[in-house]
Amino acid sequence: MRCPFCKSDDTKVTDSRATDDGNAIRRRRECQKCGRRFTTYEMVEEVPLVVIKKDGSRELFDRNKILNGLLRACNKRMVTMQQLDGIVSRVEHKIRNSLVQEVTSVKIGEMVLDELQSMDLVAYIRFASVYRQFADLDSFMAELKRLTDNRHKKV
Fold this sequence. Notes:
Blueprint: E1 11-18, E2 24-31, E3 37-43, E4 50-52, E5 58-60, H1 63-73, H2 81-97, E6 102-104, H3 105-117, H4 121-131, H5 137-154
Parallel strand pairs: 4-6
Antiparallel strand pairs: 1-2, 2-3, 4-5
């Protein structure tokens, strides 16, 4: 690893540990030439994941798009950023573990809804109203009825 300060190739690792999320290795390094310390992160290079949108177009998977949608759905709700990041990470993990390189936006949306339903029903309804694009009040009410029926079955 090249020193970012003096550009020397002579560095040594002084400490290694996994990051909090376990997806990377954090290494503290020291340059043998200038003596300065710096941090590097080592992670697995993942195969690009392509999302097939409703209109048939394709784009690279972007976890920030899911997170932004969740932030809007959870506005003024008692849901932490850590919980939202957990949802995004679990959804991405499930997709990558399925070993597919292309996934539909519909599938991603359903996975997010599954996660939200067990966390916050108001956020679920908010996300579903945008994601499912309820055509009218009847379709919205049908979703609410389905939720309340499921909730009563669990009790």
